[in-house]
Write a structure and sequence with these properties.
The structure holds two protein chains of two kinds. Helices cover 40% and strands 24% of the residues of chain A. Chain A is an alpha+beta fold. Chain A has a five-stranded antiparallel sheet, sandwiched between helices. The longest helix of chain A has 21 residues, at 29-49. By secondary structure, chain B is α+β, with helices and mostly antiparallel strands. Chain B contains 30 helices and 53 strands. In chain B, strands 10, 12, 15, 16, 19, 20 and 21 form a seven-stranded mixed sheet that branches. In chain B, helix 12 runs antiparallel to helix 13 (341-361) and helix 14 packs antiparallel against helix 22 (558-578). Classes of the chains: A alpha+beta, B alpha+beta.
């Protein structure tokens, strides 16, 4: 499992609707800020790249020292699943994204969930963390 | 061959354009030189590039050099091939000859000799000096030239052209330029071929030990240089690219470790744009070059070509990539390079690249995409430079002045820091500087943020900087790092500590203090350095490294540092703003703002912070927003921007609760409240949509009737951490169908206290128009401050509203119903009541799904109607018709029934009791209809006509009911009540007896739905009549009491006779009519109709038992005893009468006797007649009234005839003839009483029938 990873789902309006530090390394308080900052800045790059390719999985679009940002852009609603990671396991990351995407779609189908609002489901959180352990 | 390097360099420097040699055979050059060189550079050249594709060149600089020139002459043959690029690309042979023989003998052999060298591309320019007017000379010149052409032109190629000096032909120069270019093209092709072959040969040996990069380089660069001379920059660039690839491939070959370079003074300044920075000979090493200098050289060459190609964007983007890859290279050699040489190099590289590209970029117009991309790269360069600059600044102790923002923290603490082999040690004489640094560090307590926000500062340095700075030294001296520390946080010395070490900054500082105070280690070399010492040491080391005085100046003082820092940040931000990367730009704006904020330039700082906050809050990145928003708020506070400050406080409060401590949130709130209660200069409505949200209560919308006020319950969520007092609160509702008109609901009851979280608020609602309403805007006052909130919450705390925009609740909260009847007032009884008696008049009050609580009834009786005010009004529950009787009796039984009440009328107002709010009730009002008229009896036959009109008994009563929550609803109705006399009386003379006795039958027809009991009846007769016998005219008392059922009839027979009229009674007013008196009692139910009159309280018991009296006038007519005139109705035609058929009605008037005393005496021979008929039944044609001749003689007669049309079929009364001037008592009629005739229906009309 990767030691540092920050996973984030950003809605169409660029609002983070889910975030999780999924790295194995012990959590550092300031890291959250820095990771958020890096992912936020990476939105600039996603916005450039997303329209140049038809692929949903954008591999390593930005790097910050040894940390890499990979992004998965969903087709319809333009939700971005962003992962800041330090591992190079592209296949694992891709599978992780795909499965999280599926989870995300399931939560979208929940009639009580308002699309674009924060995902507060603890079940979703648990599942994402389990997926992170499995693939990253 | 490497020895040629120096020579190669000098050749390269000396020649910069293509050379064309001029073989001046006949000493003509001085004559033509000027005109030759005037036409340089050549225009519109087409040359072949390396792939043999023609390339068009706008202009090609060329230099003509005589073959006798020293530059061409003295060359060794072996140099020729290597530096072939500098050799002439064409040879122009200038000749002239005026004699054919001379040409044959001298010139031709000489020319043959010159052109025999196949290597050279040549052509001959024959210069004719013959003047144009001299035909001889011209002819000769032509001849010679013709000869020349024959001798030197080949089939394939013309190599001659002729120049007339005195009369130049127009196309000569064109011709000559073509020839020059052709030659150059051919030569260039040949040389390219040559170099390519050579290079290929060398490349094949690349991996052999004997291979020498320098040789390869010379060849390759020669080719590149040749291309450059020929202005084939693309090809030249490609050569350099290949050269770079080849170099990178070979330089790192195993076993060939070379010096890296970069150790010279001035090497810290990047030379990536100046190819001539260092002579190549200086950087050559064995068979190759030092990487540090050579890679920069190659990039410089590439950049130069790219600039020539006008592609500054590519320089910038290639440059950025180069800097990044080169910086990696530098990391590998960091241990041998001077301290922080890499950082300094990167700073200078970025700066020079930025300057060069930006200055060349300004005049280039490019596609917008490229422009954006260019700015993006510029921004990248700036921010890279900025990061490195900050790092240097931190090292020498400007750290406390660098904003610890996420951006700075991420770029400084998360990227690798310099790791020199040996961290610089502190110079011997620097103790004072150390002391000073120590002081500044001690003073630089973390600045207290406004609102008392205390959060751990983000780190700027990697967690193990201090340790890193000491470790190397320690290992050199004592060898064990652990001993040096107290070991509190750095106990495990493994490298993975980077991630585990908590709170690096704080620990670092405290630790250094403990170390210094302990003073265990005496000697400088042994003792670990404190942070201040590290700074001082780094400063001294950097001073040595940095050769650029400007850069050093920027680092030397805090002011200069900030100046440079601002310049870099601004550059980066501006460029990012010009590109697509707005977020990068805005983040840097925040950094700029931080500097301004620190320096007290709050105006600018606030502007920039606003941009940053707008970005973060727009995109909902609350963690990042929480970093900058307090600063913005502080700026606004200082600038006295109250509106901005308030809205910032509100935004702070509406951020995630976890982002601030409760104490801090309370501080925000107290600021808001403090400001709200102070006197503000310009009170601006404050938008608290994110903080105070509201929603309707679940369930169906409240429904109210049109015109009613109401109370509305809404739920308000407060995001304030504490209770908050609101001075006023009101809510606007919006009509779903009409957006313009809103409705305001107001919290009337003064101050409201909002608890944190959910609050149920009740608002009063004024009357509304019909429609359905949704929630609009919530407004209110906190102190003097008006606030408004647009945010609907969906049953929870606020979500950011922009993404909910399409989800706005459209569920109506309030429905105002269309106007509908809410209440009905109807009379309880439809049948008639008794006139002139107190009667209970019932009014049914029927609420229609609407409460009548507190309703007030105004009663206004119309004319002829009096309310008995002394008597109470009764009210009772009203039940449906079927149960009426039963219920009413029962209600009487149970007097204590709540559904019965006696009410009193006050000022004709009446308040309805509460129990009657929702049930149908009936109101009994004691009333009397007053009528002064005496009833007249009618004759039996004529009752149809003379019956008392219904209208006479009608009375109206106006009712007005005020009801509703605040008596806002009104219901008005005028009710007609029918009153009537108890009986209708008709009379008939049933028999005339022989003895003059008349039997008068009086028929009583009950008019009401009640039972009468008649106790007595008598008749006061008029003059001329008397009761038979000596009785008082009463019928036999055995008849009484006589009971008359409702609406039935009863008859009473009176026996009367005529009496003589006493002449002496004349003065007495004659009694015109007889009066029928009836004493009766009535027993009826007020629920049905007439009933016994209301017992008046003051009249006492006596009256209660008194019978009622009914009086009726009966007109008795004396029989005609002395007839003077006789009127006879003549029989009608036997065919009978039919509707629509004309019939003549005839009366015969006959004078029976003469009478003198008649009033008619004046009209001697005439009599006035009048025909009266019911106009509904008859249409009369002819004169209805007139005088008919009738003589005074006895027995005279006349027939009055009137044409009539019957209109109605059936038995009708025929028209009657009356004689108005004659007393009725003297007229004898036949038939004597009213009679009927039969009118047949109209005959069937067959005109519309269709025969069978």
């Amino acid at each position: 499992m990767t030691s540092t990873a920050c996973f984030m789902i950003v809605s169409r309006n660029d609002i983070p609707i889910y975030e999780a530090e999924v790295g194995a390394a012990p959590k550092k308080e300031e890291a959250v800020h820095q990771h958020q900052f890096i992912l936020h800045a990476a939105l600039d790059i996603v916005q450039d790249i997303a329209w140049t390719t038809s692929a949903m999985f954008l591999k390593s679009i930005d790097r910050f020292n040894d940390l890499v940002v990979s992004v998965y852009v969903t087709a319809a609603i333009h939700t971005r699943l962003m992962l800041l990671h330090d591992s190079r396991n592209d296949d694992g990351i891709k599978s992780f994204f795909q499965e999280v995407h599926e989870l995300y779609i399931k939560s979208l189908l929940n009639p009580l969930y308002l699309p674009g609002s924060r995902i507060k489901s603890s079940h979703f959180d648990t599942k994402v963390r389990a997926l992170a352990r499995k693939y990253l | 061959m490497a020895n040629f390097l120096a020579q190669f360099q000098s050749i390269k420097n000396s020649c910069d354009r293509i050379i064309v040699a001029v073989e001046d055979v006949s000493d003509l050059w001085p004559l033509v030189k000027k005109s030759f060189e005037e036409r340089l550079p050549l225009k519109g050249a087409v040359l072949n590039n390396k792939t043999r594709n023609p390339v068009f060149l706008q202009s090609l600089p060329v230099e003509y050099i005589l073959t006798t020139d020293a530059r061409i002459r003295s060359r060794f043959p072996h140099e020729l091939s290597l530096f072939w690029f500098r050799e002439p690309y064409a040879t122009v042979v200038l000749v002239t000859c005026e004699d054919l023989d001379e040409f044959k003998t001298i010139l031709k052999p000489r020319l043959k000799l010159i052109v025999q060298n196949d290597e050279r591309e040549w052509f001959i320019v024959f210069v004719s000096r013959a003047p144009p007017h001299n035909d001889q000379a011209t002819k000769m010149a032509k001849k010679v030239y013709a000869r020349l052409e024959v001798d030197f032109n080949s089939k394939k190629r013309e190599r001659c052209c002729k120049l007339d000096l005195l009369a130049p032909e127009a196309n000569f120069w064109e011709d000559m330029e073509t020839k020059v270019l052709e030659s150059i093209r051919n030569t260039l092709d040949r040389r390219i071929q040559f170099y390519e072959d050579e290079i290929r040969k060398l490349s094949e040996q690349r991996f052999m030990p004997v291979w020498n990069f320098c040789n390869f380089f010379i060849l390759k660069e020669s080719l590149a240089f040749m291309f450059e001379m020929a202005h084939l920059h693309e090809d030249s660039l490609r050569e350099y690219d290949e050269l770079e690839l080849c170099y990178l491939e070979t330089v790192n070959m195993v076993g060939k470790q070379r010096d890296f370079g970069g150790m010279d003074r001035g090497d810290d300044q990047a030379a990536l744009l100046s190819p001539g920075n260092k002579p190549l000979t200086q950087i050559v090493q064995n068979d190759s070059f030092r990487a540090f200098e050579f890679r920069q050289y190659l990039f410089a060459c590439q950049a130069k070509l790219l600039f020539k190609l006008n592609r500054p964007y590519e320089v910038a983007s290639r440059g950025y990539a180069f800097i990044m890859s080169f910086s990696k290279e530098l990391v590998l050699h960091e241990k041998v390079l001077p301290f922080c040489a890499r950082e300094v190099w990167m700073i200078t590289a970025c700066l020079s690249l930025i300057d060069a590209t930006a200055s060349r970029y300004s005049d280039v117009s490019v596609a917008p995409d490229t422009e954006k991309e260019f700015h993006r790269v510029q921004g990248d360069l700036y921010s890279l430079c900025r990061t490195k600059f900050m790092r240097l600044a931190y090292l020498i102790g400007h750290g406390p002045d660098i904003e610890r923002s996420p951006a700075n923290s991420a770029s400084l603490s998360m990227l690798p820091w310099p790791k020199p082999a040996v961290w610089p040690s502190i110079p011997a004489d620097a103790s004072s500087e150390v002391l000073e640094k120590e002081k500044t560090i001690l003073h630089a307590t973390p600045k207290m943020k406004h609102f008392g926000i205390q959060r751990k500062a983000l780190p700027l340095e990697p967690s193990l900087l201090l340790r890193e700075a000491n470790r190397r030294r320690a290992s050199l001296s004592v060898g064990n790092a652990l001993e040096m520390f107290d070991g509190q946080s750095f106990m495990d010395g493994s490298d993975s500590e980077l991630r585990r070490a908590p709170a690096p900054k704080v620990n670092a500082v405290t630790m250094s203090r403990t170390n210094s105070s302990l003073g265990i280690f005496e000697s400088t070399i042994d003792r670990p350095m404190r942070l201040s010492e590290i700074h001082v040491a780094a400063e001294h080391a950097l001073k040595k490294t940095i050769s650029d005085p400007d850069l050093w100046k920027s680092l030397s003082s805090l002011e200069e540092f900030e100046k440079k820092y601002l310049q870099l940040s601004k550059g980066a931000a501006d460029n990012y703003h010009h590109s697509w990367w707005k977020r990068h730009g805005v983040v840097l704006d925040g950094e700029i703002a931080a500097v301004w904020y620190k320096n007290g330039n709050y105006d600018l700082a606030a502007k920039s912070y606003e941009k940053v906050c707008a970005l973060y809050s727009g995109e909902g990145w609350q963690d990042l927003l929480a970093e900058v928003l307090p600063n913005l708020a502080d700026c606004q506070r200082i600038l006295n921007d109250q509106a901005g400050y308030l809205s910032s406080c509100v935004r702070l409060l509406s951020l995630d609760k976890g982002l601030f401590l409760p104490k801090e949130r309370q501080a925000f709130q107290s600021e808001v409240i403090l400001l709200a209660h102070s006197e503000m200069e310009n009170p601006v409505p404050l938008d608290v949509s994110s903080l105070i949200t509201f929603s309707s209560n679940p369930g169906p919308p409240m429904e109210i009737c049109d015109g009613d006020p109401g109370t509305l319950c809404v739920t308000v969520w407060s995001g304030f951490p504490d209770d908050i007092n609101l001075e006023a609160l009101s809510l606007t509702l919006t009509d779903t169908h009409n957006a313009d008109e809103g409705v305001k609901a107001r919290k009337s009851s003064g101050a409201t206290i909002l608890k944190p979280g959910k609050n149920a608020i009740t608002l009063s609602l004024p009357p509304q128009k019909p429609g359905s309403y949704v929630l609009g805007v919530l407004t209110g006052h906190i102190g003097h401050l008006i606030f408004r909130s647009h945010n609907f919450s969906r049953g929870g705390p606020a979500e950011s509203d922009d993404l909910m925009s399409y989800e706005k609740p459209t569920r109506p909260i309030l429905k105002v119903l269309e106007p509908r009847p809410l209440v009905d007032l109807v009379p309880a009884v439809s049948s008639a009541l008794l006139l002139n008696e107190f009667q209970w008049m019932g009014i049914i009050v029927k609420p229609i799904n609407y409460s009548l609580k507190g309703a007030i009834l105004h009663i206004d009786p119309g004319p002829g109607l009096v309310i008995e005010e002394t008597h109470n009004i009764e009210m009772e529950r009203y039940d449906n018709a079927g149960e009426n009787q039963l219920k009413s009796t029962r209600s009487e039984d149970s007097a204590g029934d709540v559904h019965f009440k006696q009410l009193t009328l006050q000022n004709s107002r009446l308040e309805l009791p509460e129990w009657a709010s929702n049930i149908t009730s009936v109101l009994w009002i004691p009333m009397r209809a007053i009528s002064d008229e005496l009833v007249r009896a009618t004759s039996e036959g004529v009752d149809n006509l003379q019956r008392q009109s219904l209208v006479d008994g009608l009375r109206t009563i106006a009712l007005k009911l005020d009801f509703g929550v605040s008596l806002n609803q009104t219901f008005e109705r005028t009710i007609a009540v029918h009153f009537t006399e108890p009986f209708h009386v008709s009379t008939r003379v049933s028999d005339k007896c022989n003895d003059g006795t008349l039997l008068l039958q009086v028929i009583l027809h009950s008019q009401v739905k009640a039972t009468y009991t008649i106790y007595d009846a008598w008749m006061d007769l008029q003059d001329g009549f008397a009761h038979t016998g000596q009785r008082d005219g009463r019928p036999a008392s055995a008849f009484f009491p006589l009971v008359i059922s409702p609406t039935s009839k009863a008859g009473i027979l009176f026996s009367i006779c005529l009496s003589n009229m006493n002449p002496e009674d004349e003065p007495k007013q004659p009694q015109e009519d007889s009066i029928l008196n009836i004493k009766y009692e009535i027993s009826g139910n007020r629920n049905v109709g007439a009933h016994s009159p209301v017992a008046l309280p003051h009249s006492g018991v006596e009256n209660a038992t008194e019978h009622l009296t009914f009086r009726c006038a009966v007109g008795l007519q004396r029989p005609v005893l002395d007839p003077c005139l006789a009127v006879g109705f003549l029989p009608l035609p036997s065919s009978g009468l039919r509707v629509g058929q004309l019939v003549a009605m005839k009366w015969r008037v006959e004078r029976l006797k003469f009478f003198e005393d008649s009033a008619l005496s004046e009209n001697k021979n005439e009599v006035l007649y009048e025909v009266s008929a019911n106009s509904e039944n008859w249409m009369i044609a002819g004169r209805k009234r007139g005088y008919a001749d009738l003589s005074k003689d006895e027995g005279s007669r006349i027939v009055v005839s009137v044409l009539c049309v019957p209109l109605v079929a059936g038995y009708v009364r025929p028209p009657q003839l009356g004689l108005p001037d004659v007393s009725k008592t003297t007229i004898s009629c036949n038939p004597p009483g009213p009679h009927l005739v039969c009118v047949l229906p109209p005959p069937l009309s067959s005109s519309f029938c269709i025969p069978a």
